[in-house]
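Notes from the 1:1 (GR / supervisor)

We went over the backlog. Supervisor wanted to see one worked example end to end before approving the batch request, so GR pasted a single chain during the call. The sequence is below; no edits were made to it. Supervisor asked that the structure be written out right there so they could see what the output format looks like.
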Amino acid sequence: MIIKSRLIIIHIMFALIISTSAVMFDKSNLFWAFYIGGWTAAPNKIFEGLLVTVVFLIAWLLYGTIMGYTKEKGFMKFVSLYWGIGGSICLTAVLMAPIGKFAIIAIPAFLLFLVPTYGLTYFYAASSNFNNQLVIICLILSWSAGAIGYLLGYQLKKLRVSTLSDK
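Structure output shown during the call:
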């Protein structure tokens, strides 16, 4: 029980550290581009924002690979809950204007869940439902990075065990 709670704390700390690091060390200011609604005011910052997003997704992929290699089954539950709850908060905020006290929850949720992957929005097609699409695409990409990493690590462990037993 103590080991499970310690792993949950480690997962939460990783998620918070990697998300805040992506926002804090970002020279292109993804946060600013996210809140003005695009890169139109700073087109020269697109590459830097894309780089931050790619590093963020690779970090989730590597962390998922480590968790899959160690066969930490609770990681997939954590990733699904983390991105699911965050996505619900962000999608609710997008569908209704963040009025009053809900903005206190919505703004940090946007920072943690959407802003680190906003660098890829340059490649999205803008439409009337762009904000809804943005939330869904950002969350699916982030969840997929962790899930694919987990499956990759799990398969690497399986492959290593089978090759060692063959020798």
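Supervisor's comment: Residues 65 and 153 are 4 Å apart (CA to CA).
Batch request approved.
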